[in-house]
Amino acid sequence: MTDKPVTEMSFEEAIAELERVVSQLDSGSVELDASIKLYERGTELKKHCEAKLKDAEEKVAKLTVSAEGEPTGTTPLDAG
Amino acid sequence: MDLIDEPRQGENAPEFSVSEISGAVKRTIEGEFAHVRVKGEVGRVMHARSGHLYFDIKDDRAVLGCTTWKAQVAKLAVIPEEGMEIVATGRLTTFPGQSKYQMNVQDVAVAGEGALMAMLEKRKKKLAAEGLFDPARKKPLPYLPEIIGVVTSPTGAVIRDILHRLRDRFPRKVLVWPVAVQGANSAAEVARAIEGFNAMTPGGALPRPDLLIVARGGGSIEDLWGFNEEVVARAAAASAIPLISAVGHETDTTLIDFVSDQRAPTPTAAAELAVPVRLELLAWTSEQGGRLNRALAAGVAQRQQRLRDLTRALPRVDRLTETASQRLDQASARLDGGLNAFVAQKQIVLGRIAGGLRPSALRGLLDRNGQRLGSVEHRLPSGLARQTDQARARLEAAISRLRVDAMTREIEAQRQSVSQLATRLDRCQLVQAANRRQRLAALDKLHETLGYKETLKRGYAVVRQGKDGDVITSKSVAQNTADLAIEFADGVLPLGAATRKAPAKPKQSPPEQGSLL
What we know:
The complex is a heterodimer.
Chain A: H1 11-27, H2 32-54, E1 59-65, E2 71-76
Helix pairs in contact in A: 1-2
Chain B: H1 18-32, E1 36-47, E2 53-58, E3 63-68, H2 70-73, E4 85-95, E5 100-110, H3 113-129, E6 147-152, H4 157-169, E7 173-178, H5 186-199, E8 211-216, H6 230-238, E9 243-247, H7 255-259, E10 262-263, H8 267-274, H9 278-313, H10 317-355, H11 359-377, H12 380-400, H13 404-450, H14 452-457, E11 462-465, H15 475-479, E12 484-488, E13 491-494, H16 495-501, H17 512-516
Helix pairs in contact in B: 4-8, 5-6
């Protein structure tokens, strides 16, 4: 188990950690105190994952590039 | 004066200055070859610092110098490389300063697909040798990128396909860097876009993507050629951001595909590689939540059940001691009676043993042994006397057989036979000696007869050197011997003495001989 705060985790890290937590709890070999802590961490991880999954904003922009090839800004792109 | 001059060669032709003739040639060449296409193999290539490009095109017999000015170089679809088979398009011109004609090349195309592929193979080998295709260089793609940078044409099916598939799976922020995906500028623009995305700062005004997709739809090998350019491959290899290449159709493989971190067969497939499916992940997450709840509940329930089971199995305290106290009671009840019974039993055994222990029994034993002793004792003297008598009788019998006269007779008989043998021995000795003397005399006589001395008696003689010297058997030896001697039967005559008496032979005598005598 990593000690990284859940809020700083990437989605991938969070789901891997959640899977570990669930398997550990599922095995039934964890002490009661520890299992409650695991459950709390699992809940937190799940929330974090869900938040990341809800954050599914689509924003497509086209870069505007200067004559020298430097990006200068963006314009919305509607590719249809 | 002759009316007709001696005609001189070329006198009537106009005279040109060098510049004039050069200019005329230039005009002629430029007029005649204003637009030509020339096919040949690229020879030496020189990129001048001014930005102009100088190179040669050659075949097996001729070389054509070529120039492409700086402004034209940017528009070239293919930058010539040594050994490349190309078709150059442009016009012929001259360079009067060096009495040279040359071609100003405005466009270069690789001649034939075979030549293109050969060139691609050469580049592949070169980049592979540099380790750019090394699987260890490939970066893992992020599982869920926040921002995806797409390098492609902003119009057309490719960007549309990518955005559609992204929306289906997992809508993300997408930054499109517009580039030309074919033509002369394509390679440079694509390389610039990859470098540009890498140059952005994470979280800046233009946030840096955490995944790049370089995409182009299908086309001919010439259309896709920009993605075979070294500059594109190098930019992709240098990209710190993981990069998916999706150029052409499934069957098209371009140079960028070898250096990218992941190759997608189509732009749509690139979008699938880029993001997971959001709904699946949501389902998975809620399932994990369910498992989490169930696992905790099950854990608690299981412990409760175990606690109940254990509680039920726990016996009362008095029941734990029941058996033991009963055993104690029984044991203490049996303790007294047990000891008495044991003593009584041992007394019985003692009584049985003590009853057999009486003086009469001992006396009986003594009596029996006394009787045995008595019977043996009276047999003892008679036995010894008998033994002695037997031994004495044997001794006497032996003595009676021992006779002295028999031995004396034997000695006498032996002595006689010894004296007889001695007599025989003496006789034998005498006879043997006489025999040997006779044989010796006979042999001596034979020896005399066979020796040369007997022969001497019959009138022969032996010539010797000196009186007792070696026998001389040839005339040649005799001639060289000074003191010859002749042995007769009755003695040896030294020859020197005999010759002295004989008169000298006149034949051999020296003149002094007479005076000597």
